[in-house]
């Protein structure tokens, strides 16, 4: 048995001009989708969607209801995200934080500019479909290596450190925000907001697969070749074991590796193209401890 942990000289990379286009496109679309969601579903149901978006809406509504002051959403949201953005630059990555700041600014001003266009006033439909749109918008931003800011910074940072999804932890923080909203404006809207946030969290967990891990066992006659190609593709370490098939008594190799669920399809296709007779077993990993390569957010 041998464990292969050295970094290969060839690494899967996208052209340098391609990633900025993808990130910018994702940020633009996610900002528009989130803004439309706020003005169509969130406003219609008087929901507080959680996170700094929800906190901004809560402060805006509190100022207007109790003090008669109309504050622009853009001013509140940008001000609240200032400190998390500084922390993001230092602890997460400059490019990731830069695209996130772009999304915060775009979303903030779009919310002020887009007219209110309610689709339905049914609170349950608003909570469910609004939550789906919110989770989809955040997932698109994450695919573009950005986020919607605020508590998303916490989720991304914890996920990179713990090697597992942390969006449910952020959901717990949001419940505190929503409980506060319940005391101020009534618990019916707050409870529907919790449904909204729960649906949003589960949508992210479903669509954003990078934080979820899978264990892959590959039985092949071409272990040396496959281990090198897989490492060039993913940069993850591989354990190489010499095994014997019990039916034909043939000596074979078994490769064991852990990778992100978003990489499973690509690695499976790679193995199939190099060894069509390879046997692949994929198992969901609940958690890992130890060294695991994470693509830097920069």
From TrEMBL:
It is a multi-pass membrane protein. Residues 236-289 form the DUF2179 domain. It holds the Pfam family YitT_membrane. The keyword Transmembrane applies. Coiled coil: none annotated. The keyword Cell membrane applies. InterPro entries: DUF2179, N-reg_PII/ATP_PRibTrfase_C, UPF0750_membrane, YitT. This is YitT family protein. It comes from Blautia faecicola.
